[in-house]
């Protein structure tokens, strides 16, 4: 049985979380970006990407980390930009960023192209990235901890609420389910000489519920479901669709996540298999569902 939570738990988490550094600057950049894209009538998607870390100490040396390379979010960002969306890319520092995979590929020892061709490929990637940023279509916001991720998601979602149906959330980040509340945390590095460590972890409330109900209720919302046990994946994805009242759930298994995903909507299930990659057909499919959602009165 999955534990449920009260909205009071959410308030408590935000109340006790450490203050967001540079909040004023981030807020100002966000407001400008959203306002401008809203005026231009662009659709806007917030893509969350990468793992989150839950610190064990305030001056953090150790933390619990959720696995995610950030590849799904970074590559999807490229395709959403190509599809005409403006993108807010909320990503874990040091995880994959849009267009970087093309540069990394150029450094592989088995690359068949000449050095000159590789330089051109890299230039092209940097150019695409640069254009998206200077044309005001891509805004990147980074986080490190679960506290920062949740505060930034709330800030972005509340601001995007004004876009109503033109807004989309694509929640591909691997979000911690457990954390040590800030008030219960040691100030300094936990000392091993004190013997074996027992930690009481609290549950992170499912923020997707709050996002749908309070922060941005008119937006199109895509959640992800990651499992390692294939026998429970589809059951959990279908449950999530109704439980969190989202428009689509992208179900994926850890080991095959780059080959295949299954999108669950109220209309049924759609299996999406790798073409060049999985993200291209996935973004195409979701763009169409979003268009139908906007056109439906
Ligand atoms: O980054 P890659 O290496 O390319 O891998 C991509 C991926 C496997 C990480 C991605 O495709 C994926 O599945 N991301 C979601 C992973 C995850 O957190 O799954 P979950 O089953 O624990 O959570 C389901 C949903 O609830 C997620 O959309 C999450 O944003 C949301 N959630 C989770 C915890 C929490 N406290 N609040 C939430 O809202």
Topology, pairings included?
Blueprint: H1 7-16, H2 23-39, E1 44-49, E2 53-55, E3 63-65, H3 71-82, E4 86-92, H4 100-106, H5 115-134, E5 138-143, H6 146-160, E6 167-171, E7 178-179, E8 202-203, H7 207-215, E9 220-227, H8 230-243, E10 248-253, E11 260-265, E12 268-273, H9 279-295
Parallel strand pairs: 1-4, 1-6, 4-5, 6-9, 9-10
Antiparallel strand pairs: 2-3, 7-8, 10-11, 11-12
The structure holds ligand PMT.
Describe this structure in words.
One of its GO terms (biological process) is coenzyme A biosynthetic process. One of its GO terms (molecular function) is catalytic activity. This is DNA/pantothenate metabolism flavoprotein C-terminal domain-containing protein. InterPro entries: CoaB-like_sf, DNA/pantothenate-metab_flavo_C. Belongs to the PPC synthetase family. The chain is an alpha/beta fold. It has one domain (about 5-100, about 135-295): Rossmann fold (3-Layer(aba) Sandwich). The chain contains nine helices and twelve strands. It has helices spanning about 5-15, 25-40, 70-80, 100-105, 115-135, 145-160, 205-215, 230-245, 280-295, and strands at about 45-50, 55, 65, 85-90, 140-145, 165-170, 180, 200-205, 220-225, 250-255, 260-265, 270-275. The strands form three sheets. It has an eight-stranded mixed sheet with strand order 5-4-1-6-9-10-11-12, sandwiched between helices. Strand 10 (about 250-255) and strand 11 form a beta hairpin. Helix 6 (about 145-160) packs parallel to helix 7. The radius of gyration is 20 Å and the shape is globular. The two termini are about 35 Å apart. The mean pLDDT is about 95. The structure holds ligand PMT.
